[in-house]
Design goal:
Number of domains: 2
Distance between the termini: 48 Å
Bound molecules: iron/sulfur cluster
Order of helices and strands: EEEHEEHEEHHEHEHEHHEHEHHE
Length: 308
């Protein structure tokens, strides 16, 4: 049986498509965007994290680890260190902690279980014009699981949105497209070399997949994270705008999302470097300027997000 691995199920979401939705965040992503605010979604495996604000130094985790006390986990005056190369992700430390300071991120589902969970909020989807959004990470990396889940969602007459970075082979999209009502598609940087420098992957496949989804006449919402020094060059915003205007006729809406540093503590919990440590939030005026560049060419543009 195909199973899926999620890192969050966000109920009552109003940011990930029309109406009230449940967003299913699936683990694993091919890109490594410096600004990613869901780093717990990057690895296709489960992750162990330690929450410093919850820890009461009970040390139950150290005693519970089957690999040996002070071997993988060490509680030092500077915090918990985790030898991730040796950790088997068994979760015994997390189970033993009375303060839930250690946590395994990643829950495995089969299709029936997940759809039963999603249907608990059906009344909210129906009364608001909402539904389910599959996001990540990159949900298309678990396309076999989606092929098991999506027909069940469709049988239950749920509206389905797919939130994708666009960087997987078209064959995977072709398998799920019939079940998708709305394609939510990230466009970050048009220039392929710059896209590769910022995310690890060029933009050619992404742009091609965007064209193909539009060609399949799927309604689309485009999302562009506006990030200092990476995506906020007016020339880049204008190039995305022209691409939307000229090549994506099914786009209903284009969201410019102001850079947020809310993901920063998650990087520390995962022992991952956060390269935007000192980047300030935008001012309202800066976001309005970016929006003006966009909306002059593609009037479907709007912006949102916290500003300073
Ligand atoms: S997940 Fe298991 S192996 Fe890893 S630190 Fe916790 S108890 Fe030890
Ligand atoms: S594509 Fe999305 S999930 Fe993947 S690294 Fe970039 S921001 Fe994070």
């Amino acid at each position: 049986m195909t199973t899926g691995l999620t890192f969050n199920l966000q109920q009552f979401s109003t940011e990930d498509g029309p109406g009230i939705r449940t967003t299913v965040f699936l683990k694993g992503c091919l890109l490594r965007c410096a600004w990613c605010h869901n780093p717990e979604g990057l690895s296709p495996q489960r992750d162990l994290v330690w929450h410093d604000t919850r820890c009461i130094a009970a040390r139950a985790c150290l005693r519970a680890c089957p690999v040996g006390q002070d071997s993988i986990l060490s509680l030092t005056p500077r915090g918990m260190t985790i030898d991730r190369a040796c950790c088997t992700l068994c979760g015994k430390c997390a189970d033993a902690c009375p303060a839930a300071a250690l946590e395994i991120i990643g829950k495995e589902w089969n299709a029936e279980e997940l759809v039963a969970e999603l249907l608990k909020d059906r009344v909210f989807y129906e009364t608001s014009g909402g539904g389910i959004t599959f996001s990540g990470g990159e949900p298309m990396l678990q396309s076999d699981f989606l092929c098991a889940v999506l027909p069940r969602c469709k049988d239950a007459r749920l509206h389905i949105a797919l939130d994708t970075c666009g960087a997987v082979a078209w064959e995977r999209y072709a398998r799920v497209l019939d079940w998708i009502d709305l394609g939510m598609f990230d466009l970050k940087i048009m220039d392929s070399a710059q896209h590769k420098r910022a995310t690890g992957i060029g933009s050619d496949l992404i742009l091609d997949n965007a064209r193909r989804i539009a060609h399949a006449r799927k309604p689309m919402w485009i999302r562009t994270p506006v990030v200092p020094g990476y995506t906020d060059d007016p020339a880049n915003i204008a190039a995305i705008a022209r691409f939307i205007r000229d090549e994506l006729p099914t786009v209903e809406r284009w969201d410019l999302l102001a850079y947020t540093n809310l993901g920063k503590p998650k990087y520390h919990r995962l022992d991952l470097p956060y390269t935007l440590e000192n980047a300030p939030l935008y001012t309202r005026g800066e976001m309005e300027n970016a929006w003006r560049v966009a909306a002059e060419i593609a009037p479907v543009a709007r912006w949102s997000g916290a500003t300073r």
